[in-house]
Design brief:
The complex is a heterodimer of chains A (about 300) and B (about 200). Chain A is of the alpha+beta class and about 300 residues long. Chain A has two domains: about 15-45, no CATH class; about 50-300, Oxidoreductase, molybdopterin-binding domain (Sulfite Oxidase, Chain A, domain 2, Alpha-Beta Complex). Chain A contains eight helices and 13 strands. In chain A, the strands form two sheets. In chain A, strands 1, 4, 5, 8, 9, 10, 12 and 13 form an eight-stranded mixed sheet that branches. In chain A, strands 3-2-11-6-7 form a five-stranded mixed sheet. Chain A is globular, with a radius of gyration of 19 Å. The two termini of chain A are about 25 Å apart. Chain B has one domain (about 1-200). In chain B, about 80% of the residues lie in helices and about 0% in strands. The two termini of chain B are about 25 Å apart. The interface of A and B includes residues 267 and 272 of A.
């Protein structure tokens, strides 16, 4: 399939590096004077970070909003709960991700090794929540396909299943009933191998904050946000469609695909428009969240009203 | 005890205090909005806050009669209209928040949501039921309608408040505990009226 990249970036669209740089210098300075605990060297989160051509031509959502308006039910149901509760509780180091199932080389990923050895890209993606709000976020991450290929999935690998950490001591929300913890998500193998699918390790040039799914989360920009599973500890290649937490919770409301689709309403609310955080009013929602040109081919011939 | 307080002229300061208490959430919201403390999605935060208080005050209004029946303290009845109107005021602001701040008069979408999405249907229905009650809340209207007809009309509140609670339950994705408690309280208050009416 032919993949078309978005239009080339105009220099004026890029967030001035000086904005990151000054913040980094400030943090480095603070660290040097012992104002920050050892190990909190955010300044050099990604020395190998490079800008990517995957970038939307829209204003970024502020870093404060991106990091203080979150759905992460492991830390509470309100949008402000994750930023209040996750940072003190989630231990992101050491962190390994077990990769297995239908592949030739099952193994593990160490998060520090992944960050060190990969070319970390900054990609500016739209983020559309199923609750009809949206953001524009500068993620830092690695294409999911690059990581998955290392484990050499075999021909039985039709789907990829993801799992979040299960540890109620670190994630108190997992003590409450109603959900089939741990959080589970899945993609079809061709969706997972699509160049837009990203494993994010940071945002705004800094390490991923706990409330955004540290240290490693999935970003699938043409799907509703809940597909972007957070704090991943397990990736499995499987032959049959994996179960996902929200689909188990209410299959009528949350389909396996959950592609952003203004023509298919959620039973609870309309999906035709969205509230972009930081703006007033609502803007129309785009098919596949504006990535139709790149991903519509994945679903050729499928009735998207049935496979919502 | 309450009757004793009234005998000493407490009514003179209870009423203004009750008004103040009902206005307090609104003042709190205005203050938070002015200081930009409503978070990343201030419109949603304001709409939910107003809806919460509309429901809470409506439940208080609904509790007046059962409380009077249980305690035998008839002085409570004089606060019923005040509470009902305050609850309605919060409901008006809640609805205005949705129509103006959230949808910005997009009547097509609003119409679609009323027809297709049951939580909006329930909310709108609850509001539609409350509207004639607010309009007929004056002494003049009570006289004009006559006591029995007025009372019959105002029984619509028995439908409106549970509908409002249902509107809340159907709105949330998860975390149905709080809205379910509201619905349970509403049903309990109705049940107590029914039990009381049958005993008499």
């Amino acid at each position: 399939m032919l993949i078309r990249l978005p239009d080339p970036i105009r220099p004026s669209e890029i967030t001035p590096p000086s904005a990151y740089l000054s913040r980094r210098q400030l943090i480095a300075g603070a660290a040097a004077f012992g104002l920050l605990p050892a190990g909190a060297v955010l300044a050099e989160a990604f020395p190998n970070l490079r800008k990517s051509d995957y970038k939307v031509d829209e204003a970024l959502t502020s870093q404060k909003d991106v990091t203080h308006y979150n759905n992460f039910y492991e830390y509470g149901l309100d949008k402000e709960d994750p930023s209040a509760n996750a940072p003190g509780k989630l231990k992101t180091r050491p962190w390994t991700i077990k990769v297995g199932g239908e592949c030739a080389k099952p193994g593990t990923i160490d998060i520090d090794a992944l960050i060190k050895e990969s070319a970390i890209e900054e990609r500016v993606y739209r983020h559309r929540c199923v609750e009809a709000w949206s953001m524009v976020i500068p993620w830092a991450g690695v294409p999911l396909a690059d990581v998955l290929k290392r484990f050499e999935p075999n021909s039985n690998a039709k789907y990829v299943a993801f799992e979040t950490l299960f540890d109620p001591a670190q994630m108190p929300g997992q003590r409450s009933g109603g959900f089939a913890w741990p959080y589970k998500e899945g993609l079809r193998i061709d969706e997972a191998m699509h160049p837009l699918a990203l494993l994010a390790v940071g945002l705004y040039g800094e390490a991923l904050p706990a409330q955004n799914g540290a240290p490693l989360r999935l970003v699938v920009p043409w799907k509703y946000g809940f597909k972007g599973i957070k704090s991943i500890v397990k990736i499995t290649f499987v032959e049959t469609r994996p179960q996902t937490l929200w689909n188990l919770y209410s299959s009528r409301e949350y389909g396996f695909y959950s592609n952003v689709n203004p023509a298919v309403d959620h039973p609870r609310w309309s999906q035709a428009k969205e509230h972009r955080i930081g703006e007033f009013g609502r803007r129309p929602t785009l098919p596949f969240n504006g990535y139709a040109e790149q991903v519509a081919g994945l679903y050729a011939g499928m009735d998207l009203k049935q496979y919502f | 005890m309450a009757a004793l307080a009234l005998r000493f002229g407490a009514e003179r300061w209870i009423r203004p205090l009750a008004h103040l208490a009902c206005a307090l959430p609104l003042a709190w919201l205005a203050g938070r909005a002015a200081l930009d403390l409503l978070g990343a999605n201030p419109v949603e935060a304001a709409i939910r806050f107003l809806g919460d208080w509309a429901l809470r005050i409506a439940l208080l209004a609904l509790a007046v009669t059962p409380l009077r029946q249980v305690t035998g303290f008839s002085g409570l009845a004089r606060y019923r209209r005040m509470l009902g109107l305050w609850g309605f005021a919060y409901a008006v602001l809640h609805l205005l928040g949705y129509v103006v701040l959230d949808q910005f008069f997009d009547w097509d979408t609003i119409g679609h949501e009323i027809l297709k999405h049951k939580f909006i249907t329930a909310g709108m229905a609850a509001f539609a039921l409350l509207l004639p009650l607010a309009v007929t809340s004056t002494q003049g209207m009570i006289k004009r309608l006559g006591g029995p007809a007025w009372r019959r009309l105002h029984r619509l509140v028995y439908l409106a408040v549970p509908l409002a609670a249902l509107h809340y339950i159907w709105m949330v994705k998860a975390g149905r505990t709080q809205p379910s408690i509201y619905l349970a309280i509403a049903l309990l208050l109705l049940l107590s009226r029914w039990v009381y009416a049958r005993r008499r």
